[in-house]
Amino acid sequence: MTNRTLTPFLPPIAAGASDSFGIPESFVPWPLGTDHDFMSSADTEPDLAASLVRANALGPWDWPEKPVVFISDPHADAESLLRSLVAARVVDRIGTGLTEFGLTGFGRSCQIIIGGDCLDKGPSNLDLLDCLAALMKSGADVVLLAGNHDLRLFLGLESLAGSRKSINAHMFVRMGKKVLPLMREIFDRHVDEETAMAGLPDEKTCLACMFPGRKWKKHFPRAAAGYLNEAAIRKEMRRLKKKMEKFTDHVEEAGLSIRQLYAAALTCRDLFINPAGRYAWFFQSMKAVHKSGSLLFVHAGVDDNMADQIAARGIAHVNRRFRKESRKDPFVFYSGTIANLMRTKYRDIDHPLTERGVEDLHQAGVRMLVHGHINRHSGQELKSRHGLLHLEADITLDRHSRSNEGLEGIGTGATIIHPDGNIIGISCDYPHAKLFNPVQILHQHGMAR
User: Fold this and answer.
1) 67 upstream amide cis, omega within 30 of 0
2) Which has the closest alpha carbon to 396: 428, 433, 368, 423?
3) What would the pLDDT profile of 323-343 be if each residue is shown by its tens digit?
4) Beta strands 388-392; 413-417: pairing state
5) Is 391 helix (H, G, I), strand (E, B) or coil?
6) What SS3 state is found at 150?
7) Which residues make beta-bridge pairs with 392?
């Protein structure tokens, strides 16, 4: 496979960045071998080739008016986000700090879509948010999508409010140990221990304020019966039981007392949920879904109900529902079809996508879904799911995941979609950038009809 320079598709990268970040400087046509699951048994029917033919048969693609840069799942790793923006030629770094960068000419001309899951894992949630805030304040055109990890924090913090209900009182402890690094950061940076903890009750009472209460096991099944089946309710309760049993041990491992954790949680709620809070912009800016040309951008996936809503009512309607319903009743929302956009992996327990949903999306002008949520170790991948083209773009950026999954270094990469129909997948874990053009690729592989 012949490789060629990226210059026709992206401006030259800053001197030294390519070598130090492991960024490819050349491209190859998008690999369609078994390493990337093309024609493999893992693909659902119709397979990727048939889905490409089907999408092209709908007529000419509608491409974004300006370049789109999609980066997903940074998971509290600001350095990986910055390196990815450099790799996409969006920013140049002007210092060593995580907010010391400036937009390039390309960065001013493109739209940047952050595909969700900014939080959890590490090394620093607040550093990532500060970096993202600096990007948004730079004048860049930024779209921020909600991820399941982001939503869990929002729902957990909302469950600490005074009007707790049986259906959502467990949502804070349900986050388990994943939320504790953020709470530690909040405590260290934003809690004045002397004043913030002066009015707090004792350890036992603070723990009770975060736990769902003794009657929860009795009342939750009835409260949740309208939203979950019996198997899902039992699974939810088993999951919570395990997390409650280990929660205090995890708090101690994080170097916090229960009172300190509760002080951090209340401070975190004020910072993120209070409209005047320092990080209130994070949840206020979020969308559930974004459409540009023939491409639909979400964090995880789509189901028949959302496909129908998009086709019948449009993207703006879905985003209005997202803002309203996520704030009205957190658990009901998280169990529903809008949150499925951030949770699904097309498992049996997820809301289904069928031929009907794919037809609705095609009628709404959607040819391809671009999303994160599913870790990939060799860069971006193309899939056919129930006949709908999917571009999976979670390329395992954060250091925590990379270490756990046997990947070296800090993740770097981005997906760049050009107005001429060329899509470039860049990842430090693949030796070349991948070039995909949905019209030309069928001709290249002798599959055009």
Assistant:
1) no
2) 428
3) 999 888 778 888 889 999 999
4) unpaired
5) strand
6) helix
7) 371, 381
